[in-house]
Sequence to fold (150 residues):
Amino acid sequence: MAAITQIGLTVPDIDKAVDWYSKVLDFKVIVAPYDTIEKKQLTDLSRDLYGAPFRRARLAQLNDPNKIGIELFEFEQTPSPADANSRPGLFHLCVTSQDQQALADKIVRNGGKRRNISGLHSLIYCEDPFGNVIEVYPEQTNSAIFEQSQ
Fold:
């Protein structure tokens, strides 16, 4: 059995991202932003993971209310976004809310964007101010799906 513990997101400004995810989605900061240069073993590990051109990154870790984590990465040279919809990797982050519309409005009020207006199938897609897609899913639908899987 495997369980998701965290999802990694690349952002252009980690301080703004930590503030945004804390304020808008109520995520709790678990590890405040730090620089890989400050921790040599992390720089070496990062080179192993990202390849020889890797020089430096800042990282932070946050948890949502369900204790699922997001790890934010600000690379010294942010990787080219290419076409995020067609390359392998994370496509979107999904959060549940008792009031989808209110959360979508809060995302927009705080610098994000709404991607769909229709709310087809009770799904609302938004973007954080850094271009990462956030699906806002109704809490009651999520509970019903969980119950069906039992």
In short: The radius of gyration is 17 Å. The chain is about 30% helix and 30% strand. Residues 14-25 form the longest helix (12 residues). The beta strands are 6-10, 28-35, 57-63, 69-75, 93-97, 113-114, 124-127, 133-138.
